[in-house]
Design a protein that fits this description.
Elements: H1 2-15, H2 17-41, H3 45-71, H4 85-93, H5 97-108, E1 124-125, E2 130-131, E3 137-139, E4 144-146, E5 151-153, E6 158-160, H6 165-195, H7 201-233, H8 238-256, H9 264-272, H10 274-278
Antiparallel strand pairs: 1-2, 3-4, 5-6
Helix pairs in contact: 2-3, 2-7, 3-6, 4-5, 6-7
Length: about 280
């Protein structure tokens, strides 16, 4: 018991490691841009003021949306989706699966629930003991059911869903602008350091490395932000696309493989721990 609690605490502590990495990279980028570029490298005072003003506006927006993405708690389904004590007792005492499905169907008639499982049954969470609303999924990392869950993001150590998807999308947009602005304003001085026109050794390292990091993050964020914009335009979520992929996978393998090979998708998720860390069920 004590060992499992210790492992759980370690797991929670390690879950903050990606957030710590991002925080350290952002703090270093702030130091490199403000101190090494603007205060040490730039000589024109008007250019300094202009660079610093725009940089701090983008920096504040970026940090604010990142903070909101991390600390906005996921919204769980309301009480009406939870089973009453009598319904719960009736459901647990029933051993026949078809009768259990009938019990869930009776309860769901009073609820605005339209999505069904692959076999046409009501989506029910055994862990939270509730009927899942549409687009609600159980996150195995947060151990709760999350309304309109998109995915569990390790870089914010939080579930992205109904309560914070707006902040997550804004975070991607502002981080994209943040990286683009740094790359655009640093590039001229990157060339000067590269060609030897400027020779300050310490600032040279920070400016050169700052451009590489900004471009690297800009490229990766561009694809991620574009993907989520496409999802929004289609009124879909990451989990919706995973469900479509899973359905296609199962349909394809039913035609080409034996029943035994149908477990490959589940084996892949179990071996890579994909569902545990990034999606849900």
């Amino acid at each position: 018991m004590a060992l499992s609690r210790g492992l759980r605490c370690c797991q929670r502590a390690f879950a903050w490691l990606p957030v710590l990495i991002i925080a350290l990279v952002v703090l270093w980028s702030y130091y490199a841009y403000v101190c090494e570029l603007c205060l040490v490298t730039l000589s024109n005072p008007v250019e300094k003021v202009a660079y610093l003003t725009i940089f701090h506006i983008l920096f504040v927006l970026f940090v604010w949306t990142y903070w909101k993405s991390i600390f906005t708690l996921p919204v769980q389904p309301g009480k009406k989706y939870h089973m009453s004590y009598a319904d719960k007792e009736r459901y647990e005492n029933e051993e026949r699966p078809e009768v259990q499905r009938q019990i869930l169907a009776e309860i769901a008639r009073k609820l605005p629930v339209y999505t069904r499982t692959g076999n046409g049954g009501i989506r029910f969470c055994d862990r939270c003991q509730l009927i899942k609303p549409d687009r609600c999924h159980h996150c195995t990392v947060c151990a709760i059911c999350v309304l309109k869950m998109d995915h569990h993001c390790p870089w914010v150590n939080n579930c992205i869903g109904f309560s914070n998807y707006k902040f997550f999308l804004l975070f991607l947009a502002y981080s994209l602008l943040y990286c683009l602005y740094i790359a655009a304003t640093v590039f001229k001085y990157f060339i000067k350091y590269w060609t030897g026109e400027l020779t300050n050794g310490r600032s040279k390292f920070h400016v050169l490395f700052l451009l590489f990091v900004a471009v690297m993050f800009f490229v990766s964020l561009m694809f991620l932000f574009g993907y989520h914009c496409w999802l929004v335009s289609r009124n879909r979520s990451t989990l919706d696309k995973c469900s479509i992929f899973k359905a296609f996978w199962m349909k394809f393998y039913k035609k080409t493989h034996t029943i035994k090979s149908l477990s490959k998708y589940s084996d892949f998720c179990r071996v890579t721990n994909f569902k545990t860390h990034f999606v849900g069920h």
